[in-house]
Amino acid sequence: MTDTRRDSDLRLVLGLGALALASVALGPYILPTFLINSLLRAILYAAVALTVDVLWGYTGILTFGQSAFFGIGAYAVGLVFTHMGFSASHALLALVLSLVVSASTALLVGWLSFYPGASPLYASVVTLALPIVVTQILFSAGTFTGSSSGLSGFESFDISIEIWFWISGTFLVLLTGVAWLFVRSDAGRMLVAIRENEARCEYLGISVSRLKILLLMAAALVAALSGYLFASMQMVVAPEYAGFVFGTELVIWVALGGRGSLVGPVLGTLFIDVGSAYLSGNLPYVWKLLVGVAFVVVIVAFPGGLLPLPMALLRRLRGIPPPARGRGPMLELAEPRALPGLRGDSASALVLEGVCKNFGSLRVLDGISFRAGRGELLSVVGPNGAGKTTLMRCISDGAERSRGRVLINGFDTGRLPPERCVAFGIGRKFQTANTFDSLTVAQSLRIARSRLERPWLLHCSRTLALPDAALQVIRATGLDEHLDMAVRHLSHGQKQALELAMVLALEPNVLLLDEPTAGLTKAERTLIGRILRDLTEHHGLCILLVEHDLDFVREVSSRVIVLHQGQILLDATVAEVVESELVRSIYAGVGSHGESPS
Amino acid sequence: MTPALELQGISSGYGEALVLREVDLTLAPGEVLAVLGKNGMGKSTLLKTVMGFLPLAAGQVRLFGESIGGHPPHVVARAAVAYTPQEQALFQDLSVEDNLRLGLRRDRQLRVGIERAGEIFPFLPQRLAQRAGTLSGGEQKMLLVARALLCQPRLMLIDEITEGLQPSVIERLSVALRAECERTGVSILLIEQNVGFARGLAQRYAVMKRGELVDQGAMHGEDTAARIAAHLNV
Amino acid sequence: MSATVLDIITTAALLYAVAAGLLIVFGVMKIINFAHGAFLTVGGYAALAVTHWGLNPWFSLPAAFVAGCACGMLIERVVMRPLYSRPLDAILATWGLGIILGQLITLAFGREVQFVRSPLAGTMNFLGTAYSEYRLSVVLAAAVLAGALGLALNGTRLGLNTRAVIMNENLARALGIDSARVRFGTFSLGAGLASLAGALITPLSSVDLNMGVPWLVNAFMLVLVSGVSLISLGIACLVLGGAQVLVSTYLNPILGGLTIVVLAALLLRLRPKGFSRD
After folding, report:
1. How far is B226 from chain A, CA to nearest CA, in Å?
2. What one-character-per-residue DSSP string does A511-580 give?
């Protein structure tokens, strides 16, 4: 993005924010009281819908549980004010309670839902169970929580309805603004990265589970705060506000407004909630039926929601092209640093001792042991099904091994997950280009750097510092000309190069490459080969390369391991392997009938 | 004579990335054609496109003269096309018998089918109740070929059946397929890396590189061996 | 004591009847059908209609099954098919369908809580305990259902095709199985089974719009811990349903209502495979 474009974006959001604040300020003078009353409720619902959008629309966590946190915030007010009476200190106590209880509940829910390997379906069902559990607890506490009728008639802040409107309106506008800045910031891009490709994030050293838990806790705090304001204002709490129907309504509003757009869910909530306040009196069932039909139609036919439709129409009517892309941030050289986790005393960069992998009764890897030093380029060859990719996985993810040890720079990786292994200095490039399709080149690289450089929470940095090796790959493949291009528009070769650059941005000194040249043109392969040789010769990297192209292997390797049916058949120099009749027969299957075409 | 399979300028791939580019290929009835080439060159994609698993980006697929581009896989399969994929080709948790049953459209033909399978691979009728996933690698491939032959195909699409097998098993598969060719005149499109196996079965070869067919010719011509070797760099 | 044992068995039978349809839809389509609760409600109201018309109460079971299947067929064709490639959206759409069905029922039947006539009102003496005949007949119904489903899946060609789609849809298609038709059949059958379960439940409780909701979440949890095995589902229903009865009887009925959800969530966290063998 160019500076002018960034500034115009900021001006736009400031302008819209000012406009929204002005309408909040003027609202009580213009709007009828009935509308103010229903808007008050809808505004706080919209704040919760915003958290659903950040969780679901941006991060891909479909949650039905935000109502529970809203309810926790509301019940903190209701319980404290009912049983202890209203005072300034009690109001503060209620606030602290609502925040602490909601955050710790979110921590528990996050621990349950976001363990490595959890299915998104499971997480959704846990968030569905949460409001049910909370309401049952409210029911079972009898008169303390007022059971099914809830609590009402407690004393609260003595504030006029106009002032409540200003408070909650300002709260919503500021919240939307902050969320808008956050999702567009360097840190916010990580949400999209997680949604698109969790595995790649983990292999870039990002703890996805931890980030999701943190995000859920933040969303819980916002929802609880909304509930706190709601109960203080309405002076009534009931189990429905924590319930599962409300939780699902939030999802419907977000979907109708347009998930992943922030403004859409806010407008969607305001319109539908105010609309139902008006219409459900006259057409109780028909109104809900219409909302249901609209919801299904939107999901099937317009998954982006309703907000993008008028926007696109407007754009077409005024003949404005979609926003053009600028040039992206300035590239610069990162400060050289001592390699992370590098221990001076370990002679070998990578050591494997008796690594085994079983799938059920099938043994895919059988006692693999070897060492590789710095500056070595070790190729692993063998027919399909020999276990090459499994070997890569077993080196980079401790949980994958059935038996055996892997040491990276002298560190035993034990059963650590990939994001922890990365800290010992290992980087893995996957077999097929494994990138973030809807992010730009620069954003992808920034995410790869986030382990070493904490990204900005509310804005985008104008520079992107990368290590020398990554810069070289980017410049040699011309990616520096496309920093602001979405990754899905790149060619296959460019994607492969980008993924390599992303892995190099981690500053690893052990590099695992799974068929980096598959599907590349001759020129691209030559280039990748040159870069790999340079990385070993001048940067001292230890590279483990899985490759089918024996020509390529011959050109770049310093040593070759031949894998066959899960065992090392040969560990030798390039010349020895090329000469070997055994390798020929198992690798290409040539000569299995005693005849050779050449 | 109408070709068994005719591909005219087909391109296809995954999403926006094209893997196959303008492939032309004709397979006569009763003919066996081996497509050779290294991994990642688009050979498996070719079969998946013919089967209808991948949408055609361009071109025409004709099966016995009828255009089948855009038909879903089960329709292609019901036109007497037997496809043996390279990976996950068997239902691992089903018994040998159920795997064979699924090769037939109706259970009525099962008894005769199992008898025939037993003639080709005698171990099969004794192991009907065993879970397919517990067979050895070679036995699994034999079951796979038996299932494909059960539906009396007019066209077989075989993807790297010899991969990771011992020479003796490869020989048995070769004998079985050759016998079927002679008996029924089935046409076979064979994807192979094992040149020896391909030579034993195919009358013609084609070499695929980076999604394009770069060479085609008779399998048993004078300079064939040298040409294939040059393409495969062995 | 023997009353508790009978409670456990009958509760497990009810849970099994409710969850079986959800399980087969989950197996074939890989989605959790949120409209399952609404189909349950459809069954409840079908039973109510049978009562209104003064027919034999036993007739409500086939009526509910047919009504559920019809709803399922329509919905699969119109809504589910375009969403094959977007499973999370398919889940949401089933939720929306639940709302639509619920509102349509309200328009037709009104919103107040209603009751249906039980086909068996008496009690019978079982090992010294007087126990509701109807609850015992539910066990029989669930056993018949389990047997029929198991036979259909494991004993027929259609069942084999369905299992093939569950295990590996692409391979099944390559062998000439029309997986779209299997999906259609499964979704319709799942809806019919849900509706049937709804009709089974109604004599034990009331008929109202939200009658499906508490069952729905329990059924989700049971399916998630069972994988795609009808046998695992039976075990899960007995173990978790049993825990629910014990907690309700000896601790607190409201906590009892949470037992399945909480235990299943914890079980899945600690052992992601749940009750399934591998």
Report:
1. 6
2. EEEESTTTT--HHHHHHHHHHHHHHHHHH--EEEEE-S-HHHHHHH-SEEEEEETTEEEEEE-HHHHHH-
